[in-house]
Amino acid sequence: MAAENDVDVIVQDAFFPTAQRGVLVEVGAARPDYLSISQRFRMAGWKVIAIEPNPEFCAMHRAAGHEVLEYACSDHDADNVPFYVVESQAADYLGEKVSFESFSSLGIKDEFAQLQKTVPTNTTEINVQVRTLNTILATHSPEIERIDILAVDVEAWELPVMRGLDFSKYRPRVTGFALQ
To answer: pTM for the full model?
Structure first.
């Protein structure tokens, strides 16, 4: 399934209409096959750096043969940080059951707390490693000099993620994030 509102198609058509390959960094990669902006680019041969703290989603990526980096992103590095995995199997969205995509994050912010009250959920706290994008890229992809697409969807934690990236070094061509 394409990304939400076909944003993957729109971005490809507007910025990368030829068959070129590039680098896509997806923070909050979620499932590899549902509402995924990276799926289209991965199939086109792009290097995809998928970053996801939810161990279930990471297992899905690995089962599909994809590399995934199991971290939460922010503007600092820390270990054993609480992360809230929020399960909501009751909600349908674009023809599928939403599992952990809607609310899981480093903390449930006010706007999401209000929305969460509208659907049945189950919240589990796990500990995760938090890293800046600078740290992740330097550690796992030191050869990367430029990001073509930076996609960030982390349930209202987008700004701390963005503060953890040196924009002058990586110069993303297209940046998209879901500010709630």
So the answer is: 0.83
